[in-house]
Amino acid sequence: MSTLFDLSFFVTVPFWALMILAPTWRWTRTIIGSPWITLVPLVIWAIVAVPILGAMWSLVTNPSLPAITDAVADPAVLTALWAQIIAWDLFLGRWIYLDSRDRNIHPLLMAPLLIGTILLSPIAFPIYLVMREVAGRGAERTTSTAVVSTPAG
What we know:
Blueprint: H1 2-10, H2 13-21, H3 26-32, H4 39-49, H5 53-61, H6 65-71, H7 75-102, H8 107-149
Helix pairs in contact: 1-4, 1-7, 2-8, 4-7, 7-8
């Protein structure tokens, strides 16, 4: 189980490396543009979760803190949960990367934020939302300045 736990993160490393280290490479956009990349850790989730689906189903349909606390003591449940978190972080990082490229937010600003998404996505995501609003205002200013400075004709 330990191997699958570790593997669920390591299979996502190439995708994170592309977004962080080669954000402007055309193949990065092509690869990261596919939502199928998130299935890689979900395959590990399926391998672990299918045998314990009954137990997991009762946890999600009737959740309680004591039941979940007891369940995560089981390495299979914890590994499935970890693989799901890793898949979610990759999905969110993928969206942030694609959105930031569409908005022309500089890769040097995005690299630390994407690292933050790997480590603590609940903190990094709201920071990115603020960043995109600020970047959007800057783009509006640039556009309105360009429009004002264009000679009428």
